[in-house]
Amino acid sequence: MDPTLGTRTLLCLSLASLLHLAWATCEASNLLQLPLGTLGALEGGRDSHGKADAISLSSPEFSVLLPKLDAKMEPLTVFRMKGDLDCPPCLQMVRALRNTRPTLKHPGVIHTGILLPEGADNFDGWVETARKLRLLPMSFLASQDLQNVKLYFWANVEQTHPLIQEIFAPLLGQYGKYIEIKRFDAAAEIKKVCSHYKANIQSFSNLTGELVKIYESQELVDSQSDLMRLFLLYNYGGAWIDSDTLLVQSLSPLLEEDWVGYMRNFLPNNNALSSSKPRSKFITAWLGHILQLGVNTTRYAYGPFSLDAMVREIQRSVANSTFRVLPGCFFEGVSNKGARAADEEIPKRTQFFNSTSLELMIRRRNYIDPRSRNHSTFGYHWHNQWGKKVEDSSMADAAEKLYCELLNIKLK
Prior knowledge:
The chain has 412 residues and is of the alpha/beta class. It is built from 12 helices and 9 strands. It has helices at 17-24, 60-71, 88-98, 129-143, 162-175, 186-196, 207-216, 221-236, 281-293, 304-316, 358-368, 395-407; strands at 108-114, 149-155, 179-183, 238-241, 245-247, 259-261, 273-276, 324-326, 379-381. Strand 1 (108-114), helix 4 and strand 2 (149-155) form a beta-alpha-beta unit. Helix 1 packs across helix 2 (60-71). The two termini are 30 Å apart. Mean pLDDT is 78; it is low at 1-56 and 69-86. GO terms for molecular function: mannosyltransferase activity.
């Protein structure tokens, strides 16, 4: 079945107000202040004229938070921070959202995936690739509302490819109906994009050809991956989660909103975590930004740098923003003791695959355990440690064992 996924102009931050409650109430007054900005049935959310529905929030609890959040929204003034973003208000927001009762208008969609270099069976320098790529699907199965949310894994190879088989063979027997592996066909996705995109295209006699040229001109897989997620979110909506991320609790309170995840002050989003309704103002603005750039082979041009430029546009006109920027604690982990539970330990990303003591390993496992009732995050982003071996008694090793236990899965 071919799912019809149903999860520079100005942007519109929707969840983004979240960011401001967390950031603006931190004691460090000069904190960076950003406004926060499914297959098949999931392509809904539009009226008969193809216009997006008015913004509707996933839960009444989240709706109640908005006035307080919006009151804290201010334009960006600086790209620097004093102190950090790990202050308790961010933790309080994560926990408040955990207690929401989201009602998704459409089946929820979470996208992830990989683009292998042409003709390659693996990536240069990567070790234990399948084992690492399996962690996100396992965390999805262990943490998400499987009756309402589905994972789509996109790749530029067939499902029969040895790497894809190694990743998913232990999972699909029991959990195949919750995960769909999709072949990413850039030309087909671009054609679908162009069948809907209508704004500001007078200068392009062949819009499809222009986007194909932009995509095919990219020698870096990173840049093609930035474009891939843009096309998928435009066509189908949903949340894109990079494959070097663990999901910790249900994303349902955040789905059906337009947002990007904050990473650091000089690069608000590394394009690892983004969400959009299909053909929303946010994703349409992002696409327009790409078309204005044209062919550009600079690394990150179509992803982090484009989103950075869009955030700067928001700072000039917050009222016309189209997405929101979520605080770092939502996915990036926090170090402040006041922003995590007493029995948790959040390792630096460079320590994710490193062996550690039993006590630390247990505390780190607690941070990502889906069974916790006191989460301080929605996910853990371990940032591209693909060349490191998975050591015994590391957080990665503990996560794998935890998911195997929860899912009743045995790995060879």
